[in-house]
Amino acid sequence: MRQLPALAQPADCTPAEARAAFRSGVVTPTAGIAPGRTQANLIALPADHAYDMLLFAQRNPAACPVLEVTEPGQWTSRLAPGADLRTDLPRYRVWRDGELHDSPVDVTDWWREDLVTFLIGCSFSFETLLHDAGVPLRHVEQERNVPMYRTIRPCVPARRLHGSLVVSMRPVPAHLVATAVQITAKMPAVHGAPVHIGAPEALGIRELSEPDFGDPVRLHEGDIPVFWPCGVTSQVAVMEAAPPFALTHAPGHMFITDTLDIHHRLF
């Protein structure tokens, strides 16, 4: 297997520089890259399934806050002029009949003219504000992908799409939990406030050390696990509904837009 290049100074690069690096073959989770810029989940479905996703997102807005919906076949985004949705994410997933078929770094050869792409807000987008407020980001500190878990909470179904809520987890020192809640509650376009604090078993999570997506993260003494809605919920819905074809981002490997996070904050 060839060695993939690394992204130099991820906290200092611009969104365009990050996207160019991914286009050249860099593969890495995107937390902490181009801080202050909105990141997005990507899911592309054939046009005859697009209404299902739009309805699913409307009924489950915390997990699937829609930032943009493209025209069929369109691979550009108004959130990042000049970007290519087929090449500018670090890793993708190709789905056939609900089964993972491939995990490429470029989906140009998989692209279809009937694909409608949804860009869905990502919780990485509020991490800069958390960091600036003194809330530690353990997954960034430990150079890990954020841990994500399937829960026992059902989403509101929409036609053929259904499934359970997926959450991302960040360990937060107990004295900073209220700060984290207050900051993220003001950003509903990128998942907003946590859905649960502490007691992971109440969500059906047996072991924090065994996430369904991403990597386990070590909690420090005094940390409390805090859980936010996650856009990977849309991928679980695709897995359950098993459409004949779909493209998504790989969990934690997001589309970095040119949009400032602050534009999604409620004052």
Keywords:
11 strands; seven-stranded antiparallel β-sheet; disordered N terminus; 6 helices; 267 residues; alpha+beta
What is the number of helices? 6
Q: N-to-C terminal Cα separation, in Å?
A: 49 Å
Based on secondary structure, the structural category is alpha+beta
Encode the helix/strand succession as letters: HEHEEEEHHEEHEEHEE
Identify low-pLDDT runs.
1-5
Largest sheet: 7 strands, antiparallel
Q: Give me the count of strands.
A: 11
Strand content: 15-25%
Shape call: globular
C-alpha Rg, in Å? 17 Å
Overall pLDDT level: 92
Helix content: 10-25%
3D structure, described in words:
The structure is a single chain. This protein is α+β, with helices and mostly antiparallel strands. Helix content is 19%, strand content 25%. It has six helices and eleven strands. It has helices at residues 15-23, 47-59, 127-132, 138-141, 177-185, 233-241, and strands at residues 37-46, 66-69, 92-96, 99-102, 115-121, 148-154, 164-173, 196-197, 223-229, 246-249, 255-260. Strands 1, 2, 3, 4, 5, 10 and 11 form a seven-stranded antiparallel beta sheet that branches. A hairpin with a 2-residue loop joins strand 3 (92-96) and strand 4. The longest helix has 13 residues, at 47-59. The relative contact order is 0.24.
